[in-house]
Amino acid sequence: MDELNALREANTPLWVGLDVHKGTCTAVALTEMGERKATWTFATTRARLKEFAEGLPQGTPVGLEASTTGKAVFQVLRDAGVAVRMGHPTELAKKMPKGRKTDEKDALTLGNCLRMNDFPETYVPPPEFEAIRNLVRFRIRLGEQTTAVKDRVHAIVARNLQNEVMDQHSDYFGTGGLETLTTLPLVEQDRAFLNAELAQLAGIAEQGEWAEREMARLAQGRTEVEQLMTIPGVGYYTALGLYGEIANIARFPDKKRFASYCGVTPETDNSGERVSEHRKVRRGNPVLKRLLCTAVRGAVRARKKNAVARFYTKKAKHMPGAKAEVAAARKLSAIVYTILTTGQLYVEQDPKLVERKTEKLAQKAKAPVAPVTIDTLRATVARLQGKGEVLERLGELAEHGGMSEEGRDAG
């Protein structure tokens, strides 16, 4: 990076756009008048990033776009003392030039946005909150995988015309339902499919147990989590998820901005707690929206009536359930905002329910969480060794989108 060192020695004020990819980073350095002083590409490694940081003139602002790799690069540069800023992908996309994209063009646009004070910055949570977010999102993915596996088991039962037998159980995957699944007269291939699906489900359940224990460990002792748990329908998992995604409630100036960030505000302007019934909801943080909607369902099921449940019931009388749920999530977001900004507990809390949730949290947090050591990873790798070709073939099918419903039926 000789060009960079020369610029540092000259102490020239610069604005640097950094286009980040998994393999390489492309940087463009601009002067105050927009003159391009240097362009260079280097490997996306810690060593090269530190070399890049050391070569920058002191205080040089660097802008990059938010992404998985971008977050890691941001952290390395910030730790190295660089004045790095992360841009919002959607807003930056509006500023990118039309036509053929190149890494150099993207880096140039990032640099110009910085130079002209038109950089759409996005919030970057501290590492503590990033760790909570990653864990909660992992737990969400496990839930999605569970639903997919259960759907495939239901399909096996249906194509063997065994629904009448299984429908005696309210849950196929309870003790009785699982026992009946083992006795169904299935064709040989479907029995093998069923065994594979149930084995996968067992693995997901084990991962889920680990995730829940780890979430309980992270949730215990956090004042904000305990405050949120006073809301009916909000257990430690939901409370920790909300806490991790919000990170700092002070970055939202009011309830309306917070609701918009949660993705539960209709496109029309709302007044107070009134929620428009006719417009689509704005896009926002999908994890927060999911957590709030989950909490609404819990609040509706709660024994003690509460404002969220009453609001949902009122809305559900004249709109589809899903829309009523989002409308109630909007109201719940206002409650969450108030609790986190004032520190007060939920006024309609059920003390006995809160006590049970707190006891469950303490019990989960006490459960031992075995650390994943190098030996643990080696044992897992040993199970995968020799399976590379199979995984590659499976990956090829996934890349082509698999087979459509029509294709399966036609086959």
List keywords for this structure.
Nucleotidyltransferase, domain 5; 5 strands; alpha/beta; 59% helix; disordered C terminus; 411 residues
TL;DR?
The protein is 59% helix and 8% strand.
**If you compute it from the alpha carbons, what radius of gyration comes out, rounded to the nearest whole angstrom?**
26 Å
Strand order of the largest sheet: 3-2-1-4-5
What's the total count of β strands? 5
Strand content: 5-15%
Structure in words:
By secondary structure, the chain is an alpha/beta fold. It folds into three domains: 2-115, Nucleotidyltransferase, domain 5; 127-219; 223-362, no CATH class. Helices cover 59% and strands 8% of the residues. It is built from 19 helices and five strands. It has a five-stranded mixed beta sheet. Helix 6 packs across helix 11 (236-246) and helix 14 packs antiparallel against helix 15 (321-342). It starts with a helix and ends with a helix.
Secondary-structure map:
Blueprint: H1 2-10, E1 15-20, E2 24-30, E3 36-43, H2 46-55, E4 61-65, H3 68-79, E5 83-87, H4 89-93, H5 103-115, H6 127-159, H7 163-166, H8 175-181, H9 188-219, H10 223-228, H11 236-246, H12 255-262, H13 286-301, H14 307-316, H15 321-342, H16 351-366, H17 374-384, H18 388-399, H19 405-410
Parallel strand pairs: 1-4, 4-5
Antiparallel strand pairs: 1-2, 2-3
Helix pairs in contact: 6-9, 6-11, 9-11, 9-16, 11-13, 12-15, 13-14, 13-15, 14-15
